[in-house]
Amino acid sequence: MKRILLTFLLLATLLPAAADEGMWLPSLIASRIDDMRAKGFRLTAEDIYSVNRASMKDAVVLFNGGCTGEIVSDEGLLLTNHHCGYGAIQAHSSVEHDYLTDGFWARSRAEELPNEKLWVRFLVRMEEVTERIAAGETAQEIIRKAEAEGESYKAAVEQMYYGNQQFLFLYEQFDDVRLVAAPPSSIGKFGGDTDNWIWPRHTGDFSVFRVYASKENRPAAYSPENVPYRPKKSFSISTRGVAEGDFTMIYGFPGNTQEYILSDAVRYIAERSDPAKIAIRDGRLDIIRAAQESDPALRIHYAAKHASIANAWKKWQGEVLGLERRGICAAKADYEKRFDAWAVDKPAYRDVVAQLRDEYARIADPYFAREITFETIAALPARYSAEARAEEVFARREATERALFRYLAGEYARRCPVQYQVPEFLDGVAACGSAEAYGEKLFEGVWNDTDTLAIDALRKGARRMLDHVGWLLGTGSLRNLNSGRLNDLYTVYIRGLREWDTRRAFYPDANLTLRVAYGRVGGYEYADGEYHKPRTTVDGIIAKDNPEIYDYDIPQALRDRYAAKDYGRWATTVEGRRTVPVCFLATNHTTGGNSGSPILNADGELVGINFDRTWRSTMSDIAFDPEICRNIAVDIRYVLFVIDRIGGADYLLREMKLR
């Protein structure tokens, strides 16, 4: 009986898609609308996606290729996460104007700061092109025709279900995007790496930008003559708040999931890939953290790099924990056995699982070498620019940069399978006596700008090795453990799964295309007897406040507002106390790329901004478990409170449609 019960529990994660699971294509959302309405949604499929009239899709943007943003005024005002805008905020910061520490609040349009190479894209339309490609038209031909429809159009053809379906996505790109406001990092990044991926959370993870256009409301390069963009659609904002059980919908650009991979791939991730990458980044972060703690200028300089390294580092830790605790390898292996039993008399499918396993065995080592190369020697700078050398902080970086060169060279030597190590690297180690000594020699040449040929040769060698790995794997798409043959086999496997498992609601893996996910506000049982409530308040911020720790040293203005209970219209009552809501949990299926996505209520009004998942939820890239997988959003009322009472930028609120 125990064995039967265990199998049942493991398979629960692989049963038909729960109402809260799935990343659905907006153009096909009509197939889910009945379920959405049964869960409380009060609008129509046309309200979500339409090419004939303004719809929600016209208020959602792909933000600089890695995040999502939402338009919240008829003058191009845009909300996204603080961590999505972090690079722009850092670029405008200095010791004299430390916007990371102090925040930034433009008091007029003239003070809004332009950002080089920052762009947003609106989806014009998406359409299935499977039959066009089957008829002989190439993806590039389809893209060229679509982009010819508009001056600033960008197009892509993306595969769904490993090529069983293919869709055209046509975007309009705007390149004049200006920083309007950002809270201090002690609000926008409150808790830092310690709280990252963790619940309870108290982070005001938002920043404010504005999209500018030509006077004709068309995309244009930055110019003082540009004017705020007039969008087709902007979101109204609900100030009524949310409660446990309320319907929520997320609309954004999730980046990468692998819901249909075999147990072999899960084992590679949990037992080999993630642990190695975590260990490498442990050392990098230790070196950078020591530098930041020693010098305020170095703290600013390395802020974005530290955040970038730490984000995936901690995510991988939670992913491994979730996969192991929920027994995902065992559950998938059982699922595969049952598929094989069904397929035994079906020639098209009976050998596909075995062939997939053989291919995973063939490609594991070269792909692992690729991952280690990117984590180590590919992370070394080839040179320091003239601009960087002119910065006052440059000389103070020497010890840190030297340590990073030594460390990463050593990690590459220890972890990369020797048959895939770059010949130039092996020669350098032999000449210098150790990998660390070779790393130091490379550093001296780059730092002093006296011998960049050595690192150029190493990088060219690494490029040749990576090209060789790409040739072995037979594909240019290497975001995951993958190969050309795997793609072909998965095309067959997924087709077979959809014939066999007719109870399962299949949705395509995330690939940074616009998707809808929906669920509800909800807590969860973190451990036996430990229930995590789905919301936090400003009281929790005060409880964590610590002036001696940078990530917990909140602005004095926030302490003062709390002491005086000066919350203005943003106050609410929680369990009998007057407070301000900060964050909430929901059951929406999210991943990277959903950062900054709008969280919408049953009436399509903005109630929050997505910014994270709980730690064990990171396994949802591979297997969504409705019992524990939760996304984390900053409550829009806290965003408005900070803009109003901390930033003193209430003029921004007058642009918004508050309800």
Quickly describe the structure.
The protein has about 650 residues and is α+β, with helices and mostly antiparallel strands.
Number of spatially distinct domains: 2
Q: Name the CATH architecture of the largest domain.
A: Beta Barrel
The CATH class assignment of the largest domain is Mainly Beta
User: Which term fits the overall shape?
Assistant: globular
The portion of residues assigned to helices is 40-55%
Task: Give the rounded overall mean pLDDT.
Answer: 94
Biggest sheet layout: 11 strands, antiparallel
- Strand elements, count: 22
User: Structural class given helices, strands, pairing?
Assistant: alpha+beta
CATH fold assignment of the largest domain: Thrombin, subunit H
How far the N terminus sits from the C terminus, by CA atoms, comes to: 54 Å
Strand content: 15-25%
Your description of this structure?
41% of the residues lie in helices and 17% in strands. It folds into 2 domains: 2-119 and 175-257 and 507-653, Thrombin, subunit H; 263-492, no CATH class. With 659 residues, it is of the alpha+beta class. α14 (352-375) runs antiparallel to α19. Strands 1, 2, 3, 4, 5, 6, 7, 8, 9, 10 and 11 form an 11-stranded antiparallel beta sheet that branches.
